[in-house]
Amino acid sequence: MKNGLLDERHHSYHGYVLRIDGTCGDEIGEFLIAVGKAAHEKHQFHAGMVVNGLSVPVPDPCQRRGRGRQARLKTPGFYMTSVIKTKKDVTDALSDGPHFLDVPTDLTTYRQRGCRRLDASTYETKCLTCIWACRMQVEMIIDHWNPSRKRYRFETFCYGPKSCSFYRAGPKRKVPGRKGMSCTEEDWVDEDATSHRGPDD
Q1: Distance of CA 108 to the CA centre of its chain
Q2: Whether residues 23 and 116 fall in one domain
Q3: 103 with 183, same domain?
Q4: Same domain flag for 30 and 54
Q5: CB 181: neighbour CB atoms within 10 A?
Q6: Taking the model in full, what pTM does it have?
Q7: Is residue 1, in this structure, part of any structural domain at all?
Q8: d(CA 114, CA 196)
Q9: Residues 134, 135, 141, 147: is their CA dihedral positive or negative?
């Protein structure tokens, strides 16, 4: 509780999602592939790598439950990735991307750093390859008297240094509530979540 407002955000971290330009079966395009933290620790995935492996399509639980109008509950299209082979000596420069192109850190560090909302268009144009930017599925409980009423949407977040010149917060988050009401998340929520870090941390 701060300034009379309650921050009800909760973050859950299950693994990493690789954004891959390549081939899946006979299809060529961009794919989102989920990998676990053990696989990341072993292979040290980072922007520019060449990766091969076997994955399974993620089933859509919303459709299985007759809720096709809701968004997919999981961000990636594929998971249970195995038989991974990587090429680490990739020299292709990603000169038009952000400066933070190292190997993503462990999930505990992401949680400890805290995040700020990130403008969606900035994410798409400036931050796709940055280790501190992410696009995650958000679950919203619409009615706390009836927690089964939920909605889902994608949102973009930044875990990076607060001094990054690319960062743009974008519009404030609005969360729908009971009987057509909504709640707007004020800036203090993000400021509080990252208050333990300096501008360049």
Answers
A1: 15
A2: no
A3: yes
A4: yes
A5: 9
A6: 0.77
A7: no
A8: 9
A9: negative
Could you tell me the CA-to-CA distances from 127 to 122, 146, 170 in Å, in that order? 7, 37, 14
Exposure of 47 by Cβ count < 10 A (0-12 exposed, 13-18 middle, 19+ buried)? buried
Choose the final residue of a domain: 71, 92, 113: 92
Residue type, 147: P
Domain match, 35 and 134 both: no
- Residue 104 located in a structural domain: yes
pLDDT in tens, 81-126: 889 998 765 555 454 545 688 889 999 999 999 999 999 999 999 9
Task: Specify whether 105 is located in the same domain as 56.
Answer: no
What is the token pair recorded at 15?
């693994």
98 or 141, greater pLDDT: 141
Q: What is the mean pLDDT of the segment spanning 61-89? A: 63
For residues 156, 160, 162 and 166, what is the CA-based torsion angle, rounded to 10 degrees?
-70
Same domain, 167 and 145: yes
Host domain of residue 143: 94-201
CB 98 within 8 A of CB 127: yes
Q: Which residues fall within 8 angstroms of residue 9, CB to CB, at 6 or more apart?
A: 189, 193
Distance of alpha carbon 142 from alpha carbon 189, whole angstroms:
19
Q: List the structure tokens of 79.
A: 């998971």
